[in-house]
Write a structure and sequence with these properties.
three-stranded antiparallel β-sheet, about 30% helix
């Protein structure tokens, strides 16, 4: 992924402008894409262009996004399937959190059989930038499904 880090950050900037993900733009996007605890990462590409990214941090799905220009092609489902496959190999039951307002992500997880375990309000940011955000918590289905499902 190292060679694609700059391209991943560029796509992340597109996603942030289009969809507001990540909620707060990171000071160092490359560092944000490679957080502490990173276990594995995947990049979706087509014709040499980066179109999406997903990461596994412990048992948490993290940094999953797809370029606005590439949505509707099943890339999010394929990235999620790659994370699910790796988790199965490692014997992990995946979890993730998503803003309640991110309807397309919520739809993806629920289509793939993820189970909503709860909804809570979390404080994101510090000081005057702190704000409450509503977040759904999900757990992966007990049986991994294929990318097209």
């Amino acid at each position: 992924m190292d060679g694609d880090l700059g391209a991943c950050a560029a796509v992340l900037a597109e996603v942030h402008t289009h969809s507001g993900y990540p909620h707060h733009w990171p000071e160092e996007s490359a560092r944000w894409l490679t957080p502490d605890g990173l276990s594995a990462a995947w990049v979706a590409e087509a014709d040499g262009a980066v179109l999406g990214h997903a990461a596994l941090c412990g048992r948490e799905v993290s940094r999953l996004y797809v370029s606005p220009r590439a949505r509707g092609r099943g890339l999010g489902a394929r990235l999620l399937a790659a994370v699910e496959t790796e988790a199965a190999v490692r014997g992990l039951r995946l979890v993730l959190e998503v803003k309640t307002s991110d309807a397309s992500a919520v739809a993806l997880y629920e289509r793939r059989g993820w189970v909503r375990c709860g909804t809570e309000r979390q404080v994101w940011g510090e000081g005057e930038a702190a704000e409450e955000v509503a977040v759904h918590r999900y757990e992966a289905p007990s049986v991994r499904r294929e990318a097209g499902a």
